[in-house]
Specification:
Blueprint lengths: L13 H6 L4 H23 L7 H65 L11 E10 L2 E9 L8 E12 L5 E5 L3 E5 L2 E9 L5 E10 L6 E8 L2
Antiparallel strand pairs: 1-2, 2-6, 3-4, 3-5, 3-7, 7-8
């Protein structure tokens, strides 16, 4: 019943040897970390843009700073252009207001002038085109004229024709004669003020002018008046 007992050997280094074994979970953790690092490297190499070297990073930074400076410059130019545009629009608005005011003043002035012209005595000869008033000035063989023409039965379209001046007077030798000056184109609405100068023969002294309003040169007469030249 009582057998022979075996001796028990005590090894004081046994616990130290058992501690040198790496636990399984640590192996799994290290293995998973290695797989993750490899996956990261694979994704970077295959799918992500290549990593930049230091010189490339420096060039990229310089390009970015240059682009940022250009963007700032363009922004400043845009702001300046916007201010200039606003000033131009304000100036355009001011000019438009002045033009509108000028047109109103012109319309009022024209109405006043037409009222004054309507108050002039009518042409004694009558006619479709009346010569309400005339003034002549002689200067260095030039006949200056100012005429007020009226069209009592004015239609929608203006009358277009010519003015023909036939001047009676004396030549440089003292003989009486008449001179037909160059015809002048004219357009008459309700009223028209015609002014200008016409050349005369050298030494000619005008005495009176016959003013004819024709529809064309040597055409149908629409008005006539004789005025003394003073």
């Amino acid at each position: 019943m009582f057998g022979r007992s075996k001796p028990v050997v005590f090894d004081r280094y046994a616990s130290r040897r058992s501690r040198r074994w790496i636990p399984r979970w640590l192996w799994l953790l290290l293995f998973g970390a290695a797989i993750g690092a490899g996956a990261v490297v694979y994704v970077q190499q295959e799918y992500l843009p290549p990593r930049l070297s230091l010189p490339e990073s420096s060039r990229l930074k310089a390009s970015y700073e240059a682009a940022e400076g250009e963007r700032s410059r363009l922004g400043a130019e845009l702001a300046q252009t916007s201010r200039k545009l606003e000033a131009a629009l304000a100036e355009q608005k001011r000019v438009a207001a002045e033009l509108a005011s000028s047109l109103r003043d012109r319309s009022a002035l024209r109405a006043n002038i037409e009222a004054l012209l309507a108050a002039l005595p009518p042409d004694p000869r009558g006619g479709a085109i009346e010569v309400r008033a005339a003034r002549f000035k002689v200067d260095d063989n030039q006949l200056g004229y100012d005429l007020v023409l009226a069209r009592p039965q004015a239609g929608a379209a203006p009358f277009t024709g010519v003015l023909q001046f036939v001047i009676a007077g004396k030549t440089a030798h003292g003989s009486e004669t008449t001179v037909a000056l160059d015809p002048v184109k004219v357009s008459v609405g309700r009223f028209e003020i015609a002014s200008g100068t016409l050349p005369m023969p050298g030494g000619f002294m005008p005495r009176e002018a016959t003013i004819r309003v024709l529809d064309r040169i040597d055409g149908k007469p629409f008005g006539m008046r004789v005025i003394f030249v003073k």
